[in-house]
């Protein structure tokens, strides 16, 4: 694909539009995705490229790998393309083309996750790549190159070399890929030689010689890079000749090589060095011993910088350029203006100075003095470049030795002292030896006491040594470390040591959780002593005073200390401490001016003009912004806080956002951002979690450790509310127990709050522990300052606990105290506060209870309704609080006959779909809806009926059921006439619908890789942005004339049209009664019937009985006929018959009598719309099958079900010119289904003999593959699946079993079947509803309807294998009318088939 495509973006959008028209995983679907990926790559390679295009291409290839058939050619190609693009993203500054691995310097570190995924992908591709495949060479080279970049151990190097050798064996001599392969292999072998612990690596060195010889031959005779290749060859030949290999016979090769270099470059010094090596090697060949030279202990250092022995290099240097001893130059004058050291110059200078010391036997002279001084600095510079501890040790050794040669008055002495201090500090940071720290401090004191002032020009420090601040080191124990340092500095008593002493005492106090405030007094005394001395006070020491006062306040809660901290920090300009202190005073006194001032200081601090070199200031600005959100409810503050937060502050911001919007992904981020464990043994110890300090706190790690524990506990308890996992509560309890042992005074109330929440979580529905919880809250309130901003939280918590105690004690005093406490909380917050709605809701509930006590001196119920209504409308409240408040408002209003009751239920129905926001993926949508929905829909309908508005009851039932499917269907709604009225708007909405549909199906799954999880993390914000734009444009569309109700729930006038297809009976049960609403096209208004014998508790009980009976009857899979004990069968049938009789007497018969239906040989169609537990009951089979009467629903009507009335309004096509019938059967890994083949033959026989316009397509056994079935379904009108079905705990994984995989619900949701009309699911449990989600069910049949089928025949439980062929034969015979298939007879044909099956069975069979 050329990057010069005239309009790549338009081409991508065209492909995106067509993608959903193909079944997922079909060849057309995969082809389209490949074209999109290639276009994104082309866009990335264009001049106006964006990394987002590369990300999209990678995501597309990753999806292709997931969807295409494993081990096939397409799968191999997709893996190859994915690994190539991952390498490109891994090394953004390079262009990796197939095999070449560019080893040029990088400007950024490679993305380790991408590199890991690339390696895994390349390994997977090689596993399925045939030996003679054209991609094998590229894959071997790619994997070898990737492993070379990600060296973990010697084995990885060896594998890299092995793979590259294999690639070379497949690569022809003059192939363009051979040179980069040789280059990579040479790098791998060179690293192996360097990393090998063997004394002899002759084979690898010989191979390197051969490789570089071939690389040399690859270059033209006059090429400049030919000289470099010759020199590399000479380097490895020299390695062969030197000890320990001593292959002196290769000296002739070195000589010939040097002559060839000199022919190309006569003045080449490296060639002359090679000639000199030849002489040395020949000399070594005749003398098998080394001549020792008397020298100091420099030999082992000198040997590190050459591969031959020290005596040999001395002779070599004598022969070349150091025959006469030259004068060394000091390196301290080499500033940045002179330019940096060139590559290899440091090592050259080290060799030069070491040689000088080796030559000089006397150890005297100017050169010796400079050599020691230079070597100390050179080794220090070498350590900075390579982090080799040997270089650091050598630097300290030579610096210590140089001090003996220099007088303190020497110009070099102060520079040497400074460099040595840095070296000692670095080694202390690595090894933790206190002697290094002591020596460093002695040098610093010596420098201060000597007070030497240099005369003459000021010498600049060497640019090779940069200022270094050692990180905090932990010795055997931190306490021992502090005690050692405190004792050491306490003995010195100099101004500088006093400052260090104060810092260490303060650190010991804060980190040891000491309760002895005398340490703080001692610190302040030391600061006073320093200030009284006649020396400048270090800046860190002057800031220590304000930090001490801030810490003192946190330990004591006394405000004067906090005011002192603010005053000192403001005077001396310590912004971060000033911000923290202002934040603390805001929490203490509630003055918004303190918070605003702290935010203003933070904004100035983080302004780009004030940004420190190479980074940002880290401060409490994020915490202050999220705190202002907690006060005002302004979401902009919350979103902005993410920019300035890190660690615990960031986790707290995510917690605020979860509480506001209820997104589970935000709760996940709380744990990730804060580094919090869930109790799985990672990230914490048995004693609790590790103490960690804030990045911006300079002096109180104990405070931040406790704050982290509090947030950790709250996150665990919040997760417990979702998962009901008692282990989370136990883990939270252990964290708080540990934190209580070292808690600051100001944080103690919040620990008590956590303790209360733990008690409430542990006691569940019981009242045990209630008294201790109330006592804990009362203690917290007594500790809190009167104006503390968190005081309302504790007052509301007290009110809630007192209200709970009233339930068990019935003491009105508790209820009155509860109301007073909650009113106290409300009086201290503004309505925009995010917690205001929760307090108002709690007040409404307490007032409602109080109204039932009989004390009517006031109007508590009226006040309760107002409080609940206010909470439901609170703009800053969380969705959950508004929803619960609206429900209770509606119930209270209905109880009081308030005319606003129906309006309140309208608000409930308006909030409910918001839990299924399009910004969530489909799994999160469904989980949230299941968690939030209950019997509220039936209660709303019952309320509407009691108010005489049956039409409103119909609307409530439609709006409150199958919200998940309705939301998903919106994204597939055609824009229709909006395209004519506002084409641009309609087109953009169509694009958003497509993108949201694709994005919402990208969900987390078990076993997701880190790369997949990272991709999904990026997908969340992108999906939310799309959802926000969708909502905005939908509102814009509603402003267009004639589209005021665009995508709004249908009103009754529209829903009533569903009765034109069939009479509809809508069943809804409450705790007290049950209503049946009848919609009939012959009656203009809906009618309703009360069914007093059926209630929701009774329906739940019947559902439980049904599940027990089915389990005993083994109705979990398509059952092959087998022997069953007679008494067992009789017991099951009796129970089932009893259940069906109850449904007949309590529901079906009263409804049929009310409608006026009689027995009929051609019964009319009746569609059931069931809510709650009623949806799980087999109403379609209700009847009395025992005794002489033997009457059932099928004698009166043809029953069917609908999930919503809207589905009945979809346009239908009763017939078509040519009907394609797809027949699928398979049962891999499951019990065989013997009669499946007979079932398909029966269908073919019926269709073949009765129709002339039907084409049968059959896929059996190995032909029934995932891709084949999806592709044929796309072009078929009828699909008949005679397979096994599976039901999973995750309903999106419910599936039909095929030959090479499962056809899952989430796959069907990605698929659009335009021509589909009818699906016959002769599989197990394809319409089984989970009892926990009756109104938000997800099963195979529903997914088929969503994919495009207009009708579905499915099973609520497993069927007998013997019944399948007869049922199918009868059904297909019934839908054929006049030689053609008529889909309008589907319900009647099924009804007839069921009756025939029943009649052909035993007497009284159901």
TrEMBL record:
Alphabetized InterPro entries for the sequence:
CHAT_dom (IPR024983), TPR-like_helical_dom_sf (IPR011990)
Q: Where is the CHAT domain?
A: 1146-1382
What superkingdom does the record give? Answer: Eukaryota
UniProt protein name = CHAT domain-containing protein
Q: Which organism is it from?
A: Piloderma croceum (strain F 1598)
């Amino acid at each position: 694909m050329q990057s010069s495509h005239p309009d790549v973006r338009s081409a991508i959008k065209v492909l995106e539009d067509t993608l959903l028209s193909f079944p997922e995983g079909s060849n057309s679907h995969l082809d389209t995705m490949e074209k999109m990926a290639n276009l994104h790559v082309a866009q990335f390679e264009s001049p106006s490229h964006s990394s987002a295009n590369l990300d999209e291409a990678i995501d597309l290839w990753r999806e292709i790998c997931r969807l295409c058939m494993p081990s096939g050619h397409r799968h191999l190609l997709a893996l190859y393309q994915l690994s190539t693009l991952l390498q490109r993203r891994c090394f953004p500054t390079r262009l990796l083309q197939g095999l070449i691995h560019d080893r040029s310097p990088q400007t950024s570190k490679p993305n380790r996750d991408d590199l890991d995924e690339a390696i895994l992908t390349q390994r997977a591709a090689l596993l399925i790549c045939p030996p003679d495949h054209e991609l094998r060479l590229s894959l071997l080279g790619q994997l070898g190159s990737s492993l070379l970049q990600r060296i973990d151990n010697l084995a990885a190097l060896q594998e890299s070399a092995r793979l590259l050798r294999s690639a070379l064996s497949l690569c022809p001599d003059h192939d363009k890929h051979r040179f980069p392969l040789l280059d990579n292999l040479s790098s791998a072998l060179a690293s192996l030689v360097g990393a090998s612990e063997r004394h002899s690596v002759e084979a690898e060195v010989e191979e390197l010689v051969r490789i570089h010889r071939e690389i040399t031959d690859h270059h033209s005779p006059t090429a400049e890079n030919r000289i470099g290749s010759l020199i590399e060859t000479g380097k490895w030949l020299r390695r062969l000749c030197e000890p320990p290999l001593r292959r002196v016979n290769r000296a002739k090769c070195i000589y010939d090589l040097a002559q060839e270099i000199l022919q190309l470059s006569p003045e080449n010094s490296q060639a002359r060095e090679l000639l000199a090596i030849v002489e040395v090697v020949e000399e070594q060949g005749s003398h098998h011993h080394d001549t020792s030279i008397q020298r100091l202990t420099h030999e082992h250092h000198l040997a590190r910088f050459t591969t031959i022995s020290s005596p040999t290099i001395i002779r070599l240097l004598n022969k070349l350029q150091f025959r006469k001893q030259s004068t060394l130059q000091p390196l301290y004058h080499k500033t940045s203006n002179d330019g940096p050291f060139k590559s290899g110059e440091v090592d050259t200078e080290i060799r030069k100075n070491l040689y000088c010391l080796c030559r000089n036997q006397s150890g005297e002279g100017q050169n010796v003095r400079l050599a020691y001084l230079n070597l100390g600095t050179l080794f220090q510079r070498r350590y900075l470049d390579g982090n080799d501890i040997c270089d650091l040790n050598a630097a300290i050794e030579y610096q210590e030795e140089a001090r003996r040669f220099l007088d303190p008055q020497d110009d070099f002495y102060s520079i040497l002292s400074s460099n040595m201090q840095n070296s000692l500090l670095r080694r202390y940071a690595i090894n933790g030896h206190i002697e290094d720290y002591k020596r460093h401090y002695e040098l610093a004191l010596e420098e201060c006491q000597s007070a030497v002032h240099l005369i003459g020009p000021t010498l600049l420090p060497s640019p090779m040594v940069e200022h270094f601040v050692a990180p905090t080191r932990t010795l055997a124990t931190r306490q021992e470390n502090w005690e050692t340092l405190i004792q050491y500095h306490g003995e010195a008593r100099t101004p500088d040591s006093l400052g260090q002493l104060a810092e260490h005492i303060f650190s010991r106090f804060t980190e040891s959780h000491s309760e002895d405030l005398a340490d703080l007094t001692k610190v302040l005394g030391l600061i006073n002593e320093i200030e009284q001395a006649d020396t400048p006070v270090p800046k860190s020491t002057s800031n220590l005073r304000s930090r001490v006062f801030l810490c003192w306040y946190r330990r004591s809660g006394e405000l004067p200390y906090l005011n002192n901290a603010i005053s000192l920090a403001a005077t001396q300009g310590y912004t971060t401490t000033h911000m923290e202190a202002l934040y603390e005073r805001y929490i203490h006194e509630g003055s918004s001016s303190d918070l605003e001032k702290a935010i203003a200081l933070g904004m100035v601090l983080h302004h780009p003009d004030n940004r420190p070199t190479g980074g940002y200031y880290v401060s409490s600005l994020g915490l202050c912004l999220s705190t202002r959100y907690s006060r005002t409810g302004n979401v902009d503050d919350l979103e902005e806080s993410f920019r300035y937060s890190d660690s615990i502050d960031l986790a707290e911001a995510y917690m605020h956002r979860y509480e506001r919007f209820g997104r589970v992904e935000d709760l996940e981020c709380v744990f990730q951002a804060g580094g919090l464990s869930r109790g799985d043994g990672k990230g914490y110890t048995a004693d609790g979690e590790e103490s960690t300090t804030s990045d911006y706190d300079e002096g109180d790690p104990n405070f931040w450790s406790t704050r982290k524990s509090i947030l950790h506990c709250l996150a665990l308890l919040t997760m417990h509310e979702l998962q009901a996992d008692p282990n989370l509560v136990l883990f939270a309890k252990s964290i708080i127990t540990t934190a209580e042992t070292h808690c600051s005074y100001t944080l103690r109330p919040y620990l008590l709050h956590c303790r209360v929440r733990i008690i409430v979580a542990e006691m569940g529905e019981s009242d045990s522990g209630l008294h201790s919880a109330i006592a804990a809250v009362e203690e917290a309130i007594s500790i809190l300052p009167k104006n503390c901003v968190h005081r309302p939280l504790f007052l509301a918590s007290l009110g809630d606990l007192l209200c709970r105690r009233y339930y068990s004690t019935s003491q009105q005093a508790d209820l009155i105290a509860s109301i007073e406490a909650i009113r106290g909380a409300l009086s201290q917050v503004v309505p925009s506060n995010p917690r205001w709605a929760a307090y108002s809701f709690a007040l409404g509930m307490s007032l409602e209870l109080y109204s039932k006590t009989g004390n009517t001196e006031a109007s508590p119920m009226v006040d309760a309704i107002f409080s609940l209504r206010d909470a439901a409308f609170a703009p800053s409240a969380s969705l959950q609080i508004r929803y619960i408040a609206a429900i209770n408002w509606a119930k209270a209003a209905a109880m009081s006959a308030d005319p606003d009751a129906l309006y309140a239920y309208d608000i409930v129905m308006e909030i409910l779909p918001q839990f299924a926001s399009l910004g969530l993926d489909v799994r999160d949508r469904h989980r949230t809806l299941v968690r939030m929905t209950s019997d509220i829909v039936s209660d709303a309908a019952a309320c509407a009926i009691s108010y005489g508005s049956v039409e409103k009851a119909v609307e409530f039932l439609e709006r409150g059921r199958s919200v998940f499917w309705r939301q998903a269907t919106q994204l597939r709604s055609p824009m229709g006439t909006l395209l004519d009225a506002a084409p641009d708007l309609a087109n953009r909405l169509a694009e958003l619908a497509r993108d949201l549909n694709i994005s919402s199906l990208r969900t987390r799954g078990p076993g997701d890789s880190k790369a997949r999880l990272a991709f999904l993390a990026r997908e969340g914000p992108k999906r939310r942005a799309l959802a926000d734009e969708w909502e905005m444009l939908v509102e814009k569309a509603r402003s267009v004339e004639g589209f005021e109700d665009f995508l709004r729930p249908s009103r009754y006038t529209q829903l009533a049209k569903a009765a034109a297809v069939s009479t509809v009976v809508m069943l809804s049960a409450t705790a007290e009664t049950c209503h049946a609403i009848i919609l009939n096209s012959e009656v203009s208004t809906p009618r309703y019937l009360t069914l007093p014998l059926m209630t929701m508790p009774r329906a739940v009980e019947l559902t439980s009985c049904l599940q027990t009976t089915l389990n005993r009857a083994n109705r979990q899979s398509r059952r092959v006929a087998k022997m069953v004990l007679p008494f067992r069968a009789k017991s099951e049938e009796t129970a089932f018959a009893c259940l069906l009789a109850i449904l007949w007497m309590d529901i079906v018969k009263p409804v049929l009598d009310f409608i006026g239906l009689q027995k009929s040989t051609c019964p009319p169609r009746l569609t059931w719309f069931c809510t709650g537990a009623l949806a799980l009951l087999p109403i379609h089979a209700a009847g009395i099958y025992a005794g002489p009467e033997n009457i059932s629903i099928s004698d009166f009507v043809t029953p069917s079900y609908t999930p919503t009335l809207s589905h009945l309004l979809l346009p239908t096509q009763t017939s078509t010119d040519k009907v394609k019938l797809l027949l699928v059967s398979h049962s891999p890994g499951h019990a065989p289904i013997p009669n499946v083949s007979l079932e398909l033959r029966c269908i073919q026989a019926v269709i073949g003999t009765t129709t002339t316009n039907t084409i049968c397509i059959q896929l059996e056994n190995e032909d029934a593959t995932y891709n084949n079935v999806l592709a044929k379904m796309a072009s078929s009108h009828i699909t008949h699946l005679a397979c096994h079905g599976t039901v999973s705990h995750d309903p999106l994984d419910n599936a039909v079993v095929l030959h090479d995989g499962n056809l899952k619900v989430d796959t069907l949701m990605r698929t659009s079947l335009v021509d589909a009309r009818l699906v016959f699911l002769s599989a197990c449990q394809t319409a089984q509803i989970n009892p926990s989600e009756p109104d938000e069910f997800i099963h195979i049949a529903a997914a088929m309807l969503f994919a495009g089928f207009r009708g579905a025949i499915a099973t609520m439980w497993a069927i007998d294998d013997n019944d399948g062929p007869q049922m199918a034969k009868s059904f297909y015979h019934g839908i054929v009318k006049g030689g053609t298939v008529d889909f309008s007879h589907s319900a009647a044909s099924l009804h007839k088939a069921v009756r025939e099956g029943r009649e052909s069975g035993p007497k009284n069979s159901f």
